[in-house]
Amino acid sequence: MFQSYLDKSTPYTPYRWGGTATLFLLFGLRIFFAQGWYIVAYSLGIYLLNLFLAFLSPKFDPALEQDEGMEDGNASGLPTKEDQEFRPFVRRLPEFKFWYSTTKAIAIGFFCSWFEIFNLPVFWPVLVVYWLILFGLTMRRQIQHMIKYRYVPFTTGKTRYRPAAN
């Protein structure tokens, strides 16, 4: 029964992400007003960063394919234009699974923020700075990978042509 509701929600992407954003806002307000559970928020941030990187990454990594070809001895250095064919971008983590995992993680984090056992004493500015550095470094590496292998993980939809005006 739960799976049928998930299946029915698939085409409603903006509403699904709107609900997730609302849940994330509630979690943020809970952390802000309770003045605690920073380690839960940090853990959630690391997990969401991991999910986002999987969402941005291709399912078949061109760097790994190139390395495997070099080991086999059947790949020459750089590919030529003649033997390349168009391959659509296939994500390692599809959008629906990304949304579902994100929503589930935020709900678990929100649930954990109500139990004192998860309220570990930490100096939260260190966690924020460390997370920002980690985010910056991983996104820089991901963008360099995207530029090197020439792929764009975002599409704006199908190209629509207007009829020619006579």
Automatic annotation (TrEMBL):
PANTHER family: PROTEIN RER1. One of its GO terms (biological process) is protein retention in ER lumen. It is a multi-pass membrane protein. Involved in the retrieval of endoplasmic reticulum membrane proteins from the early Golgi compartment. Belongs to the RER1 family. InterPro entries: Rer1 (IPR004932). It is found in: Membrane. Keywords: Membrane, Transmembrane, Transmembrane helix. It holds the Pfam family Rer1. Its main location: membrane. The chain crosses the membrane at residues 12-33, 39-56, 122-139. This is Protein RER1.
